[in-house]
UniProtKB/TrEMBL annotation:
Species this chain originates from: Dongia sedimenti
Domain HTH araC/xylS-type: from-to ranges: 164-261
Keywords of this entry: Transcription, Transcription regulation
Annotated protein name in UniProt: Helix-turn-helix transcriptional regulator
CDD domains: cupin_NimR-like_N
Domain of life the protein comes from: Bacteria
Keyword Amino-acid biosynthesis recorded: no
InterPro entries membership: Cupin_2, Homeodomain-like_sf, HTH_AraC, RmlC-like_jellyroll, RmlC_Cupin_sf
Length: 273
């Protein structure tokens, strides 16, 4: 069964009386490109095996690199699309009554243990034995999801039409190094008004918001095989080192190391420290 978003299939998924429902497949980029805006009663966990997944809702875009997953709460309209050679696993989850799981859309880091559990869960029968080994696997998955670290890979999308236009302009010309005042004038705002509206709508300064956009664009381009140098030039940096410095400050690691660690997950530490 491929990742499908037909309303009848989603209704069927929502009616299955199990905490976790697996699609029992690995979805491809082609499948993701066929995903129109939709929602479902159960929450969804999309785990990126390879490539980059993008999940878009009304006010934000989440980027999901390899070995990360996006948590989409039930009832939240969204679209999903991929960048590069994409493979992902989709699980639908109806949390128990007292879950300690996210109540908002977010990107989470998938540990080596959780990765193996998700791969195993993708093979579960539709109506697995909740009191048997399969049911215990689902319980451990919920425990692991509750403590999984959340990654700051969200680009807030403002609702004001002028700020939406600014977003489109920045995405169309990410290398444009115009000043805040120049960008403000292009959408018929003063620099002060632009700064105030961004703070109110997305909770960020213009500089931080643009850097966050650059992180999203950079990960998309790097996932397709572009070099750090090429991506730095495309984003308007005078040198690769300037781009790497920005990326490290925003994400915590340089881009090459960040992606390599996700392409080759580190083994778990079995030591006592």
């Amino acid at each position: 069964m491929y990742l499908d978003v037909r309303s009848d299939w989603l209704s069927y998924i929502d009616e299955i009386p199990r905490t976790l429902v697996a699609t029992n497949s690995v979805a491809s980029l082609t499948t993701l490109e066929q995903s129109p805006r939709h929602s479902h009663q159960k929450a969804q966990l999309l785990f990126t095996v390879r490539g980059i997944i993008n999940c878009e809702i009304d006010d934000a875009v989440w980027i999901v690199p390899p070995q990360c997953a996006v948590w989409i709460p039930g009832g939240l309209p969204h679209t999903v699309f991929g960048s590069g050679e994409v493979e992902c696993i989709s699980l639908f989850i109806e949390p128990p009554e007292a879950p300690n799981l996210p109540d908002k859309c977010c990107t989470i880091t998938v540990s080596d243990l959780l990765r193996h559990l998700l791969m195993r869960a993708n093979e579960l029968p539709e109506r697995y034995d909740v009191d048997g080994p399969d049911g215990r696997i689902v319980s451990v998955i919920l425990d692991e999801l509750a403590v999984a670290p959340v990654e700051d890979l969200r680009l807030p999308i403002p609702s004001d039409p002028r700020l939406k236009k600014l977003t489109d302009l920045l995405i169309a010309a990410p290398a444009d190094r115009a000043t805040v005042a120049e960008w403000a004038s292009r959408v018929a705002l003063s620099e002060r008004s632009l700064s105030r509206m961004l703070a109110e709508e997305v909770g960020m300064s213009f500089g931080r918001w643009r850097r966050q956009l650059h992180i999203v664009l950079a990960l998309r381009h790097l996932s397709t095989g572009q070099t750090v140098q090429a991506v730095a030039m495309d984003l308007g940096y005078e040198s690769a080192s300037g781009f790497v410095t920005m990326f490290r400050k925003m994400v915590g690691k340089p881009p090459t190391r960040y992606l390599l660690e996700r392409l080759r997950p580190a083994p778990r530490d079995h030591g006592g420290g």
